[in-house]
Amino acid sequence: MSDIIVKAASYLGPEGYGNSRTGLKPWPDALAQAVARGEVPDTSWATLFSSSCPRFGRMDALSRLGLMAVELLGVDFSALPERDRDELGVCLETRFGCLAADLNFLETLSPSVFTYTLPSTAIGEICIRHRLRGPVLCLIPANDNEQQALEQARARLRDGGAARCLCIGCDALAEPAVRRLGQRAGTQAGALYLGPDEHPSPSLACDGPLLELCRRLCVRAEIQYKSG
Amino acid sequence: MDSPVTIAACAAITALGDGLPPLERALVHNTGGLRPCARFSGRNYQTDVVGAVPDELWNQLREETPGYTNAPAFLLANHVLRQLRRNVTGRLGLVLSTTKADILALERVQAGQPCSEAARRHILPGQLAADLAAANDIRGPVRCVSVACVSGLLALQTGAELLLHNAADAVIVVGVDLLSHFVLAGFTALKSLDPDGCRPFDKDRVGLSLGEGAGAILLTHGVVASVSDAAVDVFPAAGTAATTPNLPLCIAGWGSSNDANHLTGPSRDGSGLALAMERALRKAGRTPGEVDYVHAHGTGTLYNDTMEALALRRIFGERIPPFSSSKGMLGHTLGAAGILETILCVLAAQTDTVPGTPRLRTPAADMPASLQLTPQRGVKLRTLLKINAGFGGTNAALMLEQPKP
Fold first, then answer.
1. Residue B110 is nearest to which of A103, A130, A139, comparing CB atoms?
2. pTM for the complete prediction?
3. CATH number of the domain at B247-401, please?
4. Which of A188, A197, B271, B330 has a CA between 20 and 30 Å from the CA of residue B246?
């Protein structure tokens, strides 16, 4: 079996957003304040991407953030053969999950909001957009930076449970959840696309927090990280 | 798989009561615990017929764990966890399966009502897992899995993987979810509940029934003897008609998938669930013809049950093994469902019983002939397939086998 490498990485957080090819960019003014407040506005997608995402407006913050982290990878999953997409696993890790949607549902009792009161709904949105039918998992750690999803993704890849894996960590915590739980507001997400070291292997050119994220995660999970 | 992951012990608390004997009796007699519940009567829900843990049991749980009287998710999960924990030495891990953790605490916080600090912590599923581990002196890896209605099967898979990667000598997998205003109102909003109680695979089925409870499964790697006498506790001398020795079951394979199709409805062709079953069979090195019994998801919703029948036909063709659903017995216990239904598979194998489908009267026309209305006794079940499907288009399958001699 060939080595498992990070084929692409993305990051969205207080420092900016970007991927392993472009590095980090500062947030546009229209989104900077919202990100600091832990919000993921309706306009986020159109501000960052030229592609369309008709479902984005109806999603909760967690699904929006997860979808953006995957889109930011800059990988055209539709170019993969169907067989590869069927074997592409998705592991999500989120500490606060769909708490914002839960509170929203208790306020509105709306069926369209209830749909988003499961953290794994974010995985469903990602799979629908990219037509991925591989193994799935959503882990909820007690603390930040446990990187459980990465460990699990690595296990899947090593065991042959998946040929490729998307590993996503994301949390968006805004009011009123911040006040209800006594936590800090914020938005942070990252995605890693892991897979076999195929030729020619892509080179990554991370910088700043994205570079730090990749190095830290890769060292912990013994995954090869190839710096450009 | 060279050294199998073994189900060494089980514990449960459900609408039927505390422990495995009530489950076994219901399995053998095809009965259930769905009934109107005063907690949900007179409100604007589609129904108050649910699988609720009886009030007297709740009172016992509060007395048993006085520091957590207002933390119901902890009370239920801790009750089953501690029964298995006391028999285990060595490196022990914990995997928690839940969809909403202590959702009652979130309701109280949202309404501005008093809420204990413990319950407030348990709004976050990961924190509930951490507190359960701390309270039971579990120092190995702790994971919390939350993937809708397939959480339980994916938690068992996660536990098995921890063992296979030598992260622990034993893992206890606990599933828990509560009945609440939140879930009743949510499924009412989706018009998914059967006012009279669910009728899985029935021609007149109109929806599901919700339930609550907790189940725990102790997983060990290899021989059960590595866990001190756990099996003695677990598999109590089976009920009246049991004739087989108390053998454990192994988790021989697992698989999951996403439909990539719809968030709240299953794929119409059953291909996603079939993919999960294929993966579980492949991992176990089994062919469809070797499966003795399928424990289905069988919620009682129109689309789920039809989708499952299609998925079974995709895998088994016209030679579908006996299959049934226990949602009419316990209700849909969400994050606990995969754990409790796996325990029912263990009890089925222990008692040589092909389970029936409580509350099913007349099978729908599109259901395969091997659908089990009533239990069938005296049948050896050596290879069992457990399947679940859930919101977000998720599917999961687990292959269970009696250990090879």
1. A103
2. 0.94
3. 3.40.47.10
4. B330
